[in-house]
């Protein structure tokens, strides 16, 4: 997903999308609908997720960004 954002958006647009997704996730955490912290759900830097083990995180990241 981050690669797609890098191709389709300027760096500033990508930052704006990620920041909005992080704001949304923070509200969901505060409301008790998500657990953990916003860095677990929408990291600022490219995450070191393994597609074989972290598909849940990858799918959740995609949903938060979209």
Brief descriptors of the model:
single chain; 66 residues; mainly alpha
Secondary-structure map:
Blueprint: H1 2-8, H2 11-30, H3 38-41, H4 55-65
GO biological process, one term: viral process
InterPro entries: Retrov_capsid_N
In a few lines, what is going on in this structure?
This protein is mainly alpha-helical. Helix content is 64%, strand content 0%. It is globular, with a radius of gyration of 12 Å.
Notes on the structure:
64% of the residues lie in helices and 0% in strands. It has one domain. The radius of gyration is 12 Å and the shape is globular. The mean pLDDT is 89. With 66 residues, the chain is an all-alpha fold.
Helical fraction equals: 55-70%
Count of DSSP helices?
Answer: 4
Which structural class matches the secondary elements?
mainly alpha
Order of helices and strands: HHHH
Q: What's the average pLDDT?
A: 89
The main sheet comes to:
none
What is the rounded distance between the termini?
Answer: 10 Å
The 3D shape can be described as globular
The total domain count is 1
The stretches of 5 or more residues where confidence is low (pLDDT under 50) are none
Number of strands: 0
| Relative strand content | under 5%
In angstroms, what is the radius of gyration? 12 Å
